[in-house]
Write a structure and sequence with these properties.
Strand content: 15-25%
CATH class of the largest domain: Alpha Beta
CATH topology of the largest domain: Aldehyde Dehydrogenase, Chain A, domain 1
Radius of gyration: 23 Å
CATH superfamily of the largest domain: Aldehyde Dehydrogenase, Chain A, domain 1
Number of helices: 14
CATH architecture of the largest domain: 3-Layer(aba) Sandwich
Oligomer: single chain
Number of strands: 21
Helix content: 25-40%
Largest sheet: 7 strands, mixed
Strand order of the largest sheet: 14-15-16-13-12-18-19
Distance between the termini: 72 Å
Length: 528
């Protein structure tokens, strides 16, 4: 195969679903086996500019074939976590004084390095998470855009230093945003590149130093991100990597040298961090948390069913439903409920489930045995309640017996007050509810603890306005074939969780996220 110039290939986003990606697949055909050939190696933590193996070693498994070892990682000991925080504290004064221009220059170099290595990073993402090819490469493209978007935000706002009005001629007044100090960045498995980079790069651009803990299931991409940042020129101690699970996370959040936490994960853990870290000390500290969702879609009688089915399938079952923005409940008008469900079930049944190495695979395995067991329990609970489950089988075949593969589940006839309509499952599991009045449907869709995303399919402008005015979620989509509730992109859609989906009123991917990593200071200076 002749060498392909990757600069000529189309960029994969979450929206351009009809592009010709044959060239992208050709590169992945070469890169994925190369990355697979490197599996099983040791991946140390990175503290104060050097590799570190202080802690219990553990092996991470390839979700598609759990007999294959992704690599050996180290759950950082409490002492190693302390060294990482101390290194970040030591590096903070010089990093803060370096100035926003230098920080932006290094961040932009990091974006260029990630872009040059994007197929390698995407292959690692595919292997450790079980993402489809397009999901994996799209995530890395998103991460590149995240770095460049926030670098531009810092530059456009001149480091967020602004002159204020003067009370008298000799007085100079300024409003400046200043970093907090050391941020802990705690990232999930499902978007191990984009979310890790998004939280980390904002903390770094703002002048904070970082101790980064990826999911224990996402150490490959965690180390690749670290290597890219080191190559870009982030000084020793400014960005530190500690792997591990709950114990490592608890040691990190509990260290007195941590000044703020950026977290993406479950509602229960996010709220625990808010209580114990955010308000549990001598003074309040920032907890910037995104904590999941139970994201409704409304399909009105006037909807284009082809568009609605396409968007629903992609949002409910993409990445095996393991997205905080996944469409997990759909409200369908009574008059079209039967044909909609039939077409939706037919489309879901045609999705190819298997090894994401293959170009046409849409769904890989769920991440681990606990997720599989949660899926089985949800299907059984639906059947016990008298509902009809379309699909929902655990797959057992020569192709599927080495990972935790399941069929998408579409559930109809579930009692309206059932917990499966309200609890986040993080699985390819969609419940269907019907309505005759849109206002009533939206009230029921709002009646959950979450408020992350919501979608609608309608040709009626009044219904659209009603949805936009009353849906209680930070991210709204209308009539989108590429995703009913998913597909946000930096600088194009912001991503803010209302209610139990987030701890703040400003979300990621937009102009108001970066300033949250800084605190305001007013300066009044008399001269002469």
């Amino acid at each position: 195969m002749s060498e392909i110039d990757i600069r000529t290939l189309p960029r994969v986003t979450y929206s351009n679903i009809n592009e010709d990606f044959s060239g992208v697949h050709a590169v992945l055909d070469r890169i994925i086996p190369e990355v697979r050939a490197t599996l099983g190696r040791e991946h140390p933590n990175f503290i104060d500019g050097a590799d570190n193996t202080d802690g219990a070693s553990y092996d991470a498994a390839y979700p598609v074939d759990r007999s294959v070892k992704l690599g050996t990682f180290y759950a950082a000991s409490q002492e190693a976590v302390a060294r990482a925080v101390e290194a970040a504290c030591k590096a903070y004064p010089s990093w803060r004084k370096a100035g926003w221009q230098q920080r932006v220059a290094i961040a932009r170099r990091a974006a260029d390095i990630v872009e040059a290595r994007k197929f390698e990073i995407a292959a690692a993402c595919l292997l450790e998470v079980g993402k489809s090819r397009m999901e994996a490469i799209g995530e890395v493209e998103e991460a590149i855009d995240i770095i460049r978007f926030y670098s531009a935000e810092m530059e456009t706002n001149k480091g967020f230093d602004r002159p204020l009005q003067q009370a008298q001629e000799r007085e100079t007044t300024l409003d400046v945003l200043r970093p907090y100090g050391v941020f802990a960045v705690i990232a999930p498995f499902n978007f191990p590149v984009a979310l890790s980079i998004g939280m980390s790069i904002c903390a770094l651009l703002a002048g904070n130093t970082v101790v980064f803990k990826p999911s224990p299931m996402a150490g490959l991409t965690g180390r690749l991100i670290t290597d890219c940042f080191v190559e870009a020129g982030f000084p020793a101690g400014v960005f530190n990597l500690v792997n591990g699970g709950n114990e490592t996370g608890a040691a990190l959040a509990g260290h007195p040298g941590i000044d703020g936490i950026a977290f993406t994960g479950s509602h229960s853990v996010g709220m625990m961090l808010q209580r114990t870290f955010g308000s549990g000390g001598a003074h309040a500290r920032p907890v910037l948390a995104e904590m999941g969702g139970k994201n409704p879609t409304y399909v009105a009688a006037s909807a284009d069913l082809d568009t609605a089915v396409s968007g629903m399938v992609r949002s409910a079952f993409g990445l095996q439903g393991q997205k905080c923005s996944a469409g997990s409940v759909v409200f369908v008008h009574d008059s079209i409920a039967k044909p909609f469900v039939e077409r939706l079930a037919e489309a879901a049944a045609k999705l190819k489930i298997g090894d994401p190495y293959q170009q046409d695979v849409f769904m890989g395995p769920v991440i681990n045995e606990a997720a599989r067991d949660r899926f089985v329990a949800a299907v059984e609970a639906a059947k016990t309640a008298g509902a009809t489950v379309h699909g929902g089988a655990v797959l057992d075949s020569e192709v599927h017996n080495k990972g935790f593969f399941v069929q998408p589940a579409i559930v109809t006839g579930l009692p309206d007050n059932h917990a499966l309509h309200h609890d986040e499952l993080f699985l390819p599991f969609l419940t269907v509810r019907t309505f005759s009045d849109l206002n009533d449907a939206i009230e029921r869709g709002n009646a959950v603890q979450y408020g992350l995303t919501a979608g609608i399919y309608t040709k009626d402008d009044a219904e659209l306005e009603q949805f936009l005015d009353t849906a209680e979620a930070g991210v709204l989509y209308a009539n989108r074939a590429s995703g009913a509730t998913t597909g946000a992109w930096p600088g194009i859609q912001t991503f803010c969780g209302w209610k139990g989906s987030g701890t703040g009123s400003k979300g990621g991917l937009g102009s108001w996220y970066l300033p949250q990593f800084m605190r305001e200071q007013s300066r009044t200076i008399m001269r002469g």
